[in-house]
Amino acid sequence: MKRYSLPQFLAITKEQQLPLIGKNSILYAEQFDRSQLDHYCKVADACRIIHKTDAGADLLASLLRHRTALNFFVQPSSRTFLSFSAAQTILGMRRMSLRDLKISSMSKGESLVDSIRTFMSYVDMIVMRHEDENAVKAAFWISWNSERRLLVGDGEQMVPIVSGGAGTEEHPTQALLDVYTLQKSFDQHGGIAGKTIMMVGDLKRGRTVRSLSYMMRHYPGVRLIFAAPDRYQMSADVCTFLDLHSIPYSCVDSIDDGIKDADAVYMTRIQDEWDGLAASDGHVATPERFRFGLRHLDMLKQSGCLLHPLPKRDEIDEAVDYSGDGRVVYWRQERNGMWMRVAIIAALFKADAAILAHAYPIH
Amino acid sequence: MKRYSLPQFLAITKEQQLPLIGKNSILYAEQFDRSQLDHYCKVADACRIIHKTDAGADLLASLLRHRTALNFFVQPSSRTFLSFSAAQTILGMRRMSLRDLKISSMSKGESLVDSIRTFMSYVDMIVMRHEDENAVKAAFWISWNSERRLLVGDGEQMVPIVSGGAGTEEHPTQALLDVYTLQKSFDQHGGIAGKTIMMVGDLKRGRTVRSLSYMMRHYPGVRLIFAAPDRYQMSADVCTFLDLHSIPYSCVDSIDDGIKDADAVYMTRIQDEWDGLAASDGHVATPERFRFGLRHLDMLKQSGCLLHPLPKRDEIDEAVDYSGDGRVVYWRQERNGMWMRVAIIAALFKADAAILAHAYPIH
Amino acid sequence: MKRYSLPQFLAITKEQQLPLIGKNSILYAEQFDRSQLDHYCKVADACRIIHKTDAGADLLASLLRHRTALNFFVQPSSRTFLSFSAAQTILGMRRMSLRDLKISSMSKGESLVDSIRTFMSYVDMIVMRHEDENAVKAAFWISWNSERRLLVGDGEQMVPIVSGGAGTEEHPTQALLDVYTLQKSFDQHGGIAGKTIMMVGDLKRGRTVRSLSYMMRHYPGVRLIFAAPDRYQMSADVCTFLDLHSIPYSCVDSIDDGIKDADAVYMTRIQDEWDGLAASDGHVATPERFRFGLRHLDMLKQSGCLLHPLPKRDEIDEAVDYSGDGRVVYWRQERNGMWMRVAIIAALFKADAAILAHAYPIH
Questions:
Q1: Residues 133-152 of B with CB under 8 A from A
Q2: Of the candidates B58, B310, B324, which has its C-beta nearest C118's C-beta?
Q3: How confident is the model at residue B279, as a pLDDT?
Q4: Interacting residues of B118 by C-beta distance below 8 A, sequence separation 6+
Q5: What is the pLDDT of residues B230-240, one digit of tens each?
């Protein structure tokens, strides 16, 4: 395999990186094909089910009991951080965390590259969130080029790097949990293929809706509706991609305009922290016609579902949160994320087969 | 059961809330009756004893090995935080913590209500400390109204909420550990009933002495002595309560004036952080006549005991800390708190019976 | 044993303290004799080897499964913190951490002495890093004078205190891991005795090179070369010590001047945080002649090794980091540190015998 220097690796395209990443790390939503998506969903379901019994939970907690995870989160996050943490404990992993650069050796002038290689000395997996997307790519390169190798199954492998969100673009495990939630929601309704998904809000900067759009190429017949103010509409690069893969999409100017056609509504928050407004107390208000209220539940198909990657702000009426309506799945979506992360981590350490064997014993 | 909206729930009185809380959560010292107090003390004792053997410690560590606790502490605290953490590890719980709102999604404009519901997606119990007492009440309401339910024993229950201190008033597990410490101290002297307890210091704002006063209604014959500067004397509401329950009390103007009559001396710190002085380096000095020194140990009954909820400052002479006098129980009081929290958490998950069965096997 | 007050204990010399510390705590590199060094290295090796199998890792994780460690790190550190954390998880310890005084009761005016005694109520070992070296000594004194005792083996012992770095001088576990790394590097070359070790960089303030120099008295025939700018040369107190123990040393003015004679090169970073420069972005640049580059690898003996306590900055060329040269051992040095800390902690709790018995069974 050709060796790249770190600057060379950061300079090549994502497509050139993908074959190098293989199954050793999770960096991009683009790295999953349909069979992997189906496999991860199946493993996530198996984990969820077997964890309900002591025997199943004991099995899960034994699988990675001698593996140590580091959750290295430089950007603010409690949701993704807790979700990964919970997933790791379910698999019995030992956990450590770093959430503040001020308490690290970087205050003594150490480079991020050295810090990551140091962390790698102590742990068997790094989950990393960083505002600079190159930081997570660099972590992969460091692990690949470090001499430290883990014995996994019959072979050796590098310390896996899992992106917990990198820059404005990449959040691959969020994309996986969105797919998993859609699949579970449509489980009794023929699956994701052929469904119409309306995405609402800040489509321009929301990495979840961008990723989800890309991933829909794996599900034949899906149609997309983009409901957003002009300034936050879906970017041209995504639209070009959809055209290329013959995925139909339309743009509408309110939830009302699209909801009757939608099987799933995927709400998003206006990402004003990227406007440099995060530090101020003021947030950009969501225009009324892009806010989801109780009346929209009346308009939504009975087989439909309402998703949101969370955190949310004013784009969903509080009454919807506690409506008790089974189509409101965004809280379960969070727990789905935990199970999906259990599945991903198990697969990285080749422990997925044992989970499936326990969940679906062969007679 | 009647449904309340969150604002309605926050608006009803504590007495109206109590029947809703039941045995699902720990919010108020007032929720415990005498039989519960005795039960918790018995379970705490059992935990303390069986943990001394590997078999007992292994049993304890197996009881909640598949349950996850979140310690969500917004207010400064290391004592209560570590005490709960230690209790959870003793029961084998998986632990996560959040101690800083800056690293959470609240920096993206998420409401506290949404954050708590999110945390609830990942964990099976939330221990919460917050400067706003409504925050902990809200957490209870959210859990009650969320769809997430845990299988415990033969039934389903909400994710338990445990107050680790809420606002200026509530700190129910501290009240429990104070009772437990008094009970242990008077174990060879007939128990708490009939004893005289002198409370010293900032009685007006000290939530521990207020709670403890209320709880004394469960112990017949107890007398209270309040030793405090006028401006920090016990509030009228507590005195009215004591009159109503025919609990005798008297006010004195120095430790010397009350110590000869006291079986227990309960010292407290002047809570100047509520004066808005906490950020400054200067603290309010405790008047000399309310400081406990070595000479007071000479005046204290041989069967007496000296408590303090800690942290302390200048109200106890350092020489008392390392006097080696067995009546100085405030350090043991801290460890008692840990065992009491083990008991509480075990009971919330119906694991207390297994503990008692191990500690007191029936022949 | 004579009792000292805390001020008295802090006032006596290190030599007077050493017999009091015994085998209960780790405060100074000076407390280890040669047989202890050899023993710790042997245990560390045993841990490293048996952890490769599930049976060995399970044994290790069972040894201290009912012991709780507190990592109380007031100074910035991620390396030492993670290393101790990883070591504790390997031994199955329950872990808690405090890294920020602002979230502790000290913000309510509690003394450090009280805080430490409080922490001791909940845990069975404290690893402590503090900028004030007296803080760690005080922790030892508190544990010694507290009534809390642990049952270990057949007897009782105080809660062990382990220094994770105290002030500008003491970092005993770093000294141990340096010795362990040298010993492993020279394993096939006759051990440390008789070797020539060149120390490079900030020898004046680098506590690692100072400690390592002192420890070389345990290895006959060792020679030292000090390569440093005049202002950072090794202090007179160390030189006096070396003269007293007849350890030959010489001072050189560049890496080039000493590298041909060196078996080991021990690089260090200019400790400009002690110059009060840490908060600024600017760091003191290392003079070119004290920077290690790829060309120095060509000059280094084939049986040689290159160490660095890390973090590093500009004193080693980045190309050396990823050269793949087996003599570059500073990354492995970090992992060695973790194994050494496993050994130390195991020994503090008398669990080292079980480790050696598993690693080297008697037939």
A1: 145-148, 151
A2: B310
A3: 43
A4: A78, A79, A82, A310, A311, A331, A334, B105, B110
A5: 999 999 999 99
Q: Which residues between 56 and 115 in chain A have a beta carbon less than 8 angstroms from any beta carbon of chain C?
A: 65-66, 68, 70, 94, 96, 98, 102-105, 107-111, 113-115
8 Å CB contact between A245 and A307: no
Average pLDDT for A136-164: 95
The H-assigned helical ranges of chain A are: 6-11, 14-21, 34-50, 54-63, 79-90, 112-122, 133-145, 172-185, 207-215, 236-244, 255-258, 294-299, 318-321, 330-348, 352-359
Strands A264-267 and B155-157: unpaired
Nearest residue to B302 (alpha-carbon basis) of B259, B345, B257, B271: B259
H or E element in which residue A250 lies: strand A249-252
Q: Which chains touch B (3 or more CB pairs under 8 A)?
A: A, C
Residue A272 to residue A264: CA distance in whole angstroms? 25
pLDDT in tens, A63-109: 999 999 999 998 778 899 999 999 999 999 999 999 876 656 666 77
Answer whether residue B117 shows pLDDT above 50: yes
Chain A's closest residue to C94, CA to CA, is A94
pLDDT tens string C213-272: 999 999 999 999 999 999 999 999 999 999 999 999 999 999 999 999 999 999 999 887
- Give the ipTM of the model, two decimals please: 0.93
User: Can you list the domains of chain B with their CATH numbers?
Assistant: 6-171+337-359 (3.40.50.1370), 174-335 (3.40.50.1370)
Length of chain C: 363
C56-92 b/e with 16+ CB inside 10 Å = b?
A: bbebbbebbebbbbbbbbbbbbbbbbbbbbbbbbbbb
| Torsion angle, alpha carbons of A163, A168, A169, A175, to 10 | 60
Q: Name A217's Cβ contacts closer than 8 Å, sequence gap at least 6.
A: A241, A245, A247
DSSP class of residue C52?
T
Q: Please say whether the beta carbons of C299 and C265 come within 8 A.
A: no
Nearest to B202 by CA among B112, B290, B288: B290
- The count of residues in chain A is 363
Mark B25-54 as b/e (b = at least 16 C-beta within 10 Å).
bbbbbbbbeeeebebbbbbbbbbbebbeee
Beta-bridge mates of residue C152: C155
C54 min Cα distance to partner chain B (Å): 20
Query: Which chains border A (3 or more CB–CB pairs < 8 Å)?
Result: B, C
Using CB atoms and an 8 Å cut-off, which of residues 27-56 of chain A contact chain C?
none
Sign of CA dihedral B171, B173, B174, B179: positive
pLDDT digits (tens, 9 = 90+) for B245-270: 999 999 999 999 999 999 999 999 98
- Cis bond leading into C311, ω under 30°? yes
Interhelix angle B54-63/B352-359, nearest 10 degrees = 170
Please indicate whether, in this complex, the C-beta atoms of C122 and B338 are within 8 angstroms of each other.
yes
Q: Pick A107's closest partner by Cβ from C57, C278, C310.
A: C278
Segment B331-345, tens digit of pLDDT: 999 999 999 999 999
Q: Residue C104: which of B76, B312, B331 has the nearest Cβ?
A: B76
